[in-house]
Amino acid sequence: MKVGEMTVPVLRCSGCGAPAIPPRYVCGACGGTGFAQDRLGAQATIHSYTVVRVAPEAFQADVPYTVLLVDLAPGLRVTARLAGDKGGEGLSIGQALKFERVDDRGVYWFRAA
Amino acid sequence: MRGVSIIGIGTTPFGVLEGLGLKAMAIQAANQALADAGLDRKEIEALYVGNFISGVLTGQETIAPQIGDLLGLRKDIPCTKVEGACCSGGIALRHAHSLIASGQAQFVLAVGVEKMTHASTEKNTEGLATAMDHDSEGRTGLTFPGFFALVANRHMHEFGTTAEHLALVSLKNHDNSANNPRARFRKKVAIEKIRESKMVADPLRLYDCCPISDGAAAVVLCPTEIARRFNPNPVEIMGTAQSTGYTTLYDTPNPVTLDATVIAGKKAFEMAGITPEDVDVVELHDCFTIAEIVDSEDLGFFAKGRGGFAVAEGLTRVGGKVPINPSGGLISKGHPVGATGIGQVYEVVRQLRGTHENQVRDAEIALTHNLGATGQVVTVNIFRRAS
Fold it and tell me: Based on the domain organization, do A53 and A94 belong to the same domain?
């Protein structure tokens, strides 16, 4: 891990070392059932995105908000929210992102790099 | 395994059915199916009810035994509800098929039903969202339109699919349902109105989304070898498959493909011993316009990435190469969630009997595709009219 490189919290399979987004009960790669908390060096980019304009009650206050599908590493993605969201303006697929945080509900947040 | 055929069909209209409750709708559709089969209700040996969210939206659970009792079925038979979100109806049909194919029953009734329009939009949104994984993706605020919008944006990026392609799916399905007396929307819609409708989750607009609806549909099944005793035009189930997809979009290997559709399609085609080229008419799960495009590719009717272009070329209209959703589909016939899978079967049986309002000429083989939640569960059924 180089100094300054972005790391993202993940689960790490105790059997084969494959990273996974929590919650994960059985490793998709080896079938193992043991996991440890770890961090993954990641280059986050936008795989896809949308701006949600009609939302269930619990998210009404956030409308409009952007949901991101983020590429983290080969074979590893996460569905996430955009920090500093301006209604999705200026976003494009392939764009680089910076990891911001995982909130107390387990939601990953990224910011445009 | 022995052959299984459909000898009776029934349905309510799909739409806003004021004053008609969940059980009343189910019983209306079931009575129609029994009458269509000319079968005494006391002959039925099992009932499967496809329903998604009766508990959340109407406060009523345990609906299968209640429907069985109120319908006057025998007391020595199982009445069971099955649930797989929007795929609940398709699952009910498969259970009915299995019971007969395996020789455990002669006559089985499958019903799909959902009551939605009495509840507020917020309550419906909340109810439908229960099919998301609320331990992960559901917590981000991703909605169902949002999920399919993520698929749409990626599909556009990779293949050049356009917003106009999406609008043309909606236009076609509204044109089709204008002729369908069972449909929620009976008026054709101008393309400008579709293009300019309210944005729900970019790039999906209101007219890219299916409407909540009330409705029920029912079918009576029996072994093929005795089907002609009840119906001069039985429809045989040639292939049937159910598959399991990914719980989240982030685990879906390639989000322009819903793998459960590919798998169920392949299995159903293999069982039927045919290929996509042999299918005359299709009712597939267009919960959103992009879903119709993706499904049509995943089922093998068009190469991956070509689904939108196929719509623009008119290939999916009645009279085109692969008529898709001549009923109007979920987009315009309506989507009473648990009823949809059986409603699709109702529509294709009419096609194979040659009595559909948007009849595909000489239709012999039909396919239905029913998808639950985020592609977590899919059923594909292939039907043939008795020769």
Answer: yes
